[in-house]
Amino acid sequence: MHIGIINGPNLNLLGTREPEVYGSQTFEEYFETLKQKFPTTELSYFQSNVEGELINKLQEISKTCDGIILNAAAYTHTSVALGDAVSAIKTPVVEVHISNIYAREEYRHHSFLTGKCVGVISGLGLQGYELAVEYLKA
Ligand code: DQA
């Protein structure tokens, strides 16, 4: 079982970026504990601030992954192209957001991804990634 995690723009700054919203742990630290929690699952992680790189990675790992966890960050709310990329692949994609996008600014309430993904987890902090892994494994 191989699950790929893709994080979008500014999520490389987790740990220092608005800790009151996103917490104080870096994703690299969290990813280590995630791998320990699922020792029999192959987990890979990619982050980019560049929209096209996220699309390329989504297409690429869809060929080898059994499931994908996608936090497209701000591109969630702007990118028709990322939504199209999710539609174009057969691998199930779970949309994850660390913060509760529905409790924030109105422009964050719309996602170009949700309708294309198998489901969405929003507002449960970094734990959302773990819950998405559990879902995809099941
Ligand atoms: C986010 C929510 C987005 O609205 C925001 O642009 C992000 C992070 C989240 O994980 O809560 O960068 O996707």
Class by helix and strand content?
alpha/beta
Q: In the CATH scheme, what's the topology name?
A: Rossmann fold
- DSSP helix count? 5
Mean residue pLDDT: 97
Q: Assess the beta-strand content as a share of residues.
A: 15-25%
What does the secondary structure layout of this molecule look like, with pairings?
Layout: E1 2-7, H1 19-22, H2 27-37, E2 42-47, H3 51-61, E3 67-71, H4 80-88, E4 93-97, E5 119-122, H5 127-137
Parallel strand pairs: 1-2, 1-3, 3-4, 4-5
The structure holds 1,3,4-trihydroxy-5-OXO-cyclohexanecarboxylic acid (DQA).
Keywords:
138 residues, alpha/beta, Rossmann fold, 5 helices, 5 strands, binds 1,3,4-trihydroxy-5-OXO-cyclohexanecarboxylic acid
Describe the protein's architecture and organization.
The chain is α/β, with parallel strands linked by helices. The chain has a single domain (2-137), classed as Rossmann fold, CATH 3.40.50. The chain is built from five helices and five strands, in the order βααβαβαββα. The protein has helices at residues 19-22, 27-37, 51-61, 80-88, 127-137; strands at 2-7, 42-47, 67-71, 93-97, 119-122. It has a five-stranded parallel β-sheet with strand order 2-1-3-4-5, with helices on both faces. Helix 4 links the parallel strand 3 (67-71) and strand 4. The protein is globular, with a radius of gyration of 14 Å. The chain starts with a strand and ends with a helix. The mean pLDDT is 97. 1,3,4-trihydroxy-5-OXO-cyclohexanecarboxylic acid (DQA) binds at residues 10, 71, 73-74, 76, 97-99, 101, 108.
